[in-house]
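Below is how a single chain appears once it has passed through the pipeline. First comes the sequence as given, then the structure the pipeline wrote out for it. We keep one example in the README because the format questions we get most often are answered faster by looking than by reading.
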Amino acid sequence: MDEHIGGYKKMKTLAIVIPAYKVTFFECTIASIAKQTCKDFTLYVGNDCSSPEIGDIVQKYIDHIDIVYHYFDTNLGGVNLVAQWKRCIELTQGEEWVWLFSDDDIMGERCVELFIQEVKKNKFDIYHFNVREIDGRGLETGRVSCFPEITTSFFFYKERMLGRMISMVVENIFSLEIYEKENGFQDFDLAWTSDDASWIKFMRNGGMKTILGDSVYWRNSIENITPNISPAFEERKLNSLLHFYEWILAVLDYEKKWKLIIINFIGYIKRIRLASVNVDMIFLRKNVYQFAKMHKMIILVPFILCFVGLNKYVHKLIFRR
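Resulting structure:
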């Protein structure tokens, strides 16, 4: 039977939602939430059929902040990460704002306070905190993301595709209204690009407002970075990328469509170059053809395949005996 800890209390302004699975840094995360200078939130933790130790850590803080903890007896994140996000958000009780956080990152202690102040001054569908990267010891690496005061959906997409903007999942707070209006998170296989697509549709009618004064600390460690570069996994990522491009061409209403096509082309070349070393040419030919057909650039297929083939050959020559 599913375990449920914590009663539903008076509704707060903000729901902080953690789809929990990893326990290593979880207490650091929940401690940073407990240190918030403003307590106008309820923390919801959805344990994705993982270690009971997560529940033990929650119990330490149950008298310090409003917490609802739920243990799911089936693992969903390993099959469909977006579905796990969704069922954790469904634990909430209708708070106006939702902050999907992680089980290993840290929020600056004034984040909630600054957010509450900001929403009283203006109303956007989605708000953003800049991110500072930390390592496994919690020390800053010096890598920082700085967004403009207001980010438009097209600017966000362009910068993400060109690799000039860092975006995770944990640094954005969105309204429950826009979440429901846009039918939740955009669901792609492996949740590949699902976060980017979701932020784009959440911000497309008014932009995303950056909140200054504190940051989210994103942890880059061996614990949370476990890249899977198997051929089957890379093929699924490339197929998801095609679905993302198809979606973006239909959703992002930009008057100069040719610019969007150029951005997609540059972004695709960057990504297929990295993935191609682990994927066979039969799959790559099909994927490249589908991309080119979607963007009405079939004439470029031979050139892209030549580039991909040369990249595979050079990689094999240098890195493999």
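The CA atoms of residues 193 and 241 lie 7 Å apart.

See the next section for the split statistics.
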